[in-house]
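Box S2. Input/output pair 1.
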Amino acid sequence: MPIREVIARPVWCLLAMCVLAVGAPGSLHAEPADCEPIGRTRDDPSYRSWARVATVTRAGRYCLTEDLNSKSIFDFASGGYATSKSPMWEVEAGPVQIDLQRHELSSNQPVAVISIGASDVSVANGKIRAGAVSAIRLQGSQLISLRSDYAVFGIDGDLLDRSYTRELGPISGSGRTSIPHGGLQLDHMQIDAGSSTRTRFGAVAVGGQRSGNSVTSSRITVRNGHAGIYLFGAGQRIENNTIVLKCADATPSAAPIKLHAADNSIIRNNTIVVDCWSDKPQAAISLIDSRNVVIENNRIIGVKQLYKVWDERPEQRSSVVERGNTFPTLWDRLLGR
């Protein structure tokens, strides 16, 4: 497996007080003892600059051995900062288990920190800080669901219609059930995305067009963001997380959780926080063409509406089974209720 390492510099910050009041997930699970270690190679020429951490081309178990950071460097030839166009960690084969072993991957590059092009990949037990667009992205996925999403880019008229049809046509109608299987599993992760984003569309902490993914027992914060979790495809499971949207972007459907064509998905036992003084999203959860979505036993803080359906085509028919969700007041949170 080719490995190209980067200079390391641990980076972390505390979440907002409203999130601390909510609490954090349980203890990180123990790292596996029989995994292939991955760490920087100090005699690698790329050690002094940004580069990719690793490309995984075969199934297996991998462990990160230290904190790694990919940052922009000043290019004297051009007189400006040079950035990487490659993810820090790319997964091209599966099944793969990645244990970060309580270490951190940190990047301010305009690409995902971890890019996944294979099925049945798990990432657990660590931290990811993505200053720009995404922390974890499933390859080949356009994170666009609505005509209003395209409007953010200034696309309108015939060009909007062509783009909308090209991107959403394959997952509309009968195609909505043909979104390929992903099987991504994120567990006991701390993810912070969008702190330095310069994109108009905003950051997405975890996103992609793959079915059957799960995000559990994690804390996800997105700043200047479009969504904390934005997934397409049936059978998504989002459970026992704290998900925080610091500020919405210019897209009306921005939300801490956004699902498209996500039939039979479960959103359960999460604390969903909107931490914005103005320009708040319209709901904690945005749904597009997603049927029989179970939303239960979630705590919603900072926004008054649990979910909003954004269906805009005649064939789109979102439906929800809703139960046991609460909107705790400040006093409730101070008293631990």
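Box S3. Input/output pair 2.
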Amino acid sequence: MTLDPQKRRSPAQMRAGNLRLALILIGVVAVFFLGAVVKQWLVR
């Protein structure tokens, strides 16, 4: 990280980064749970 004001991220850029990270994490969790549900369905 840098303290140079020219290179700091704006609040809008930080929000965009946070949103992107949240969507990625939600996607990973969704795939995990879908995999668990499909596995249970196939085992039955």
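Caption for Box S3: The chain has one helix and no strands. The mean pLDDT is 90.
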